[in-house]
Amino acid sequence: MKTLETGDKSIALVVDDNPDSLGMVSSALEAQGMTVLVARDGHSAIKLTHRVQPDVILMDALMPDIDGFETCRRLKSGPNPTLAPIIFMTGLCDQEHVVKGLQAGGVDYITKPVVIEEMIARLSTHVVNSRMLQSAREAIDAFERPVLAFDEDAEFVWGSKSALELLESSDFNPSAPGFLLWLLNCVARPVSEISPHTGDGVVAHFMGLSATREILIKLVVEDGPTRGDLLQSAFNLTAREAEVLYWLTLGKTNRDISAILALSARTVNKHLEQVFQKMGVDNRTSAAVLADRLLHTRASL
Question: Other C-beta atoms within 10 Å of 110: how many?
Answer without folding.
Answer: 19
